[in-house]
Design brief:
Layout (H helix, E strand, L loop, with lengths): L1 E8 L3 E8 L1 H15 L15 H8 L5 H20 L8 E8 L2 E9 L5 E2 L16 H15 L1 E4 L9 E10 L2 E14 L9 H5 L7 E7 L12 E15 L5 H7 L5 H33 L2 E2 L4 H21 L4 H8 L3 H29 L5 H15 L3 H7 L2 H20 L7 H13 L1
Antiparallel strand pairs: 1-2, 2-4, 3-4, 5-11, 6-10, 7-8, 7-10, 9-10
Helix pairs in contact: 1-3, 4-7, 6-7, 8-10, 10-13, 11-12
């Protein structure tokens, strides 16, 4: 392998012209021949025993060239990157320039990390979300427990929101019953949003024994055979039930929780809800800090870098689904999405992720942030404990350079967050707080 030229291009790209020698190319041709010879048949020779020279004589010396180029270029490309000290951040664009028995030449347009700087990163003005938990919030947290402890009692009145209507129903499209549109003695909680939009709203107000035709239009994003279709559901209400909630007392707390009193149960719900909201508030605050940081980023981000990150995100999503026993294509079909839709969503996230990484890397360089071996070892230990594996297993599946960069970015982000300032309070807000404090 020989690098014929190394030239900087626009958009953080470098064009390498790489030559593969005759000897290297011949070795690649030999590999291809040995892989394919078992399938080559020539009269007068046993299958798989045709000499390479005979095949080239019959079909031309270039018969193995295309596959041999595919065989040889990855190693040549990697060797060229190493020799030139280039670290790519995206897939290369490759172009074959010349191929002959004397070797081949190809161009590789390689995207590298662009120069990036941040105008301001200390003292960014970012509002921190305030975490509050009200009595109404706690009541809402209790609702699932209340629902489970409630009883459904038959009532002789018109159905209202929150009731359970026991119904028979059958759907018709153009006067013909459609598949999956029929049910008997189905318990439907009115207001739950279980059925197609418009269905539950029309059942509200019906009484036991009443029958009614419901005119419904399916949403455009419904299954293909019913998407946007106008149908009629014939509905009969067999029974109306109302939910009778339990008394909210100590006995209720004992029945639905590990606590002996209602106050203890409420306190636990409040603390857990507050902890969740604090975690979410911290995530929201971090996102807001990053937003402010990105406003100060000075960098021309290569499109190829974002495309590469988006592709990786889609691959990781598909892999996670496969690990959970789900087929990615089936998921897309169920959600009514195309691969282009998924990739467009991923590209938006990838653009932000790439710019965030560049900004934090710029901060780390500006501040001289370094990651020590002790910090790397501590991270390996943390991951091993988190996933219940050995430290050796963690090291086998992680790239130390990537881990070092990730830890450096985290340290840079903590620096930016710790130096951020709250927005100045408006005069009216400050006066209101003072008045409130004086009244306490």
């Amino acid at each position: 392998m020989n690098i014929k030229s190394n030239e900087k291009k626009e958009n953080s790209a470098i064009e390498l012209v790489i030559e593969v020698s005759a000897a290297e190319f011949d070795a690649a041709i030999n590999k291809v021949y040995n892989k394919q010879k078992k399938n080559i048949m020539v009269p007068g020779f046993r299958k798989g025993k045709v000499p390479r020279k005979m095949v080239e004589k019959m079909y031309g010396e270039q018969v193995f060239f295309e596959d041999a180029v595919e065989e040889a270029y990855p190693a040549a490309y990697d060797a060229a990157l190493k020799e030139a000290g280039i670290v790519p951040v995206a897939y290369p664009k490759l172009e074959i320039v010349e191929v002959s028995k004397d070797g081949f030449t190809f161009k590789a347009l390689v995207t590298v990390q662009p120069e990036a700087s941040v105008k301001e990163y200390k003292g960014l003005v970012v509002a921190k979300p305030e975490v509050k938990v009200t009595a109404a919030d706690v009541k809402a947290e209790m609702k699932p427990y209340i629902d489970r402890a409630s009883r459904l009692v038959s009532v002789d009145r018109k159905a209202k929101k929150g009731d359970v209507a026991v119904i028979d129903f059958e759907g018709f499209k153009d006067g013909v019953a459609f598949e999956g549109g029929k049910g008997e003695n189905y318990s439907l909680e009115l207001g739950s949003g279980t059925f197609v939009p418009g269905f539950e709203e029309q059942v509200i107000g019906m009484k036991a024994g009443e029958e009614k035709d419901l005119d419904i239009t399916f949403p455009e994003n419904y299954t293909a055979d019913l998407a946007g279709a106008a149908v009629v559901f014939k509905v009969k209400v067999n029974e109306v039930k109302e939910r009778q909630e339990p008394a909210l007392d100590d006995e209720f707390a004992k029945d639905v929780s590990e606590f002996d009193t209602l106050d203890e149960f409420k306190k636990d719900l409040k603390e857990k809800l507050k902890a969740r909201r604090q975690q979410q508030a911290e995530r929201d605050y971090e996102a807001a800090v990053i937003d402010a940081l990105l406003e100060n980023l000075v960098c021309d981000v290569p499109e190829a870098m974002v495309d590469y990150r988006a592709d990786k995100m889609v691959e990781e999503q598909a892999m996670r689904m496969q690990q959970n026993g789900l087929n990615f294509q089936d998921y897309l079909k169920y959600m009514g999405l195309s691969m282009d839709d998924v990739r467009a969503q991923a590209k938006t996230a990838a653009d932000r992720a790439v710019r965030t990484a560049l900004a934090l890397d710029a901060v780390a360089k500006a501040e001289g942030i370094e990651v020590t071996q002790e910090e790397l070892d501590a991270e390996v230990k943390r991951l091993a404990e988190q996933f219940n594996v050995t430290e050796e297993q963690v090291r086998e599946v992680t790239n130390e350079s990537d881990m070092k960069q990730d830890l450096g970015s985290k340290k840079a982000l903590e620096l930016v967050k710790s130096s951020a300032k709250k927005p100045a309070k408006k005069k009216e807000e400050a006066q209101a707080e003072t008045t409130e404090a004086q009244g306490e």
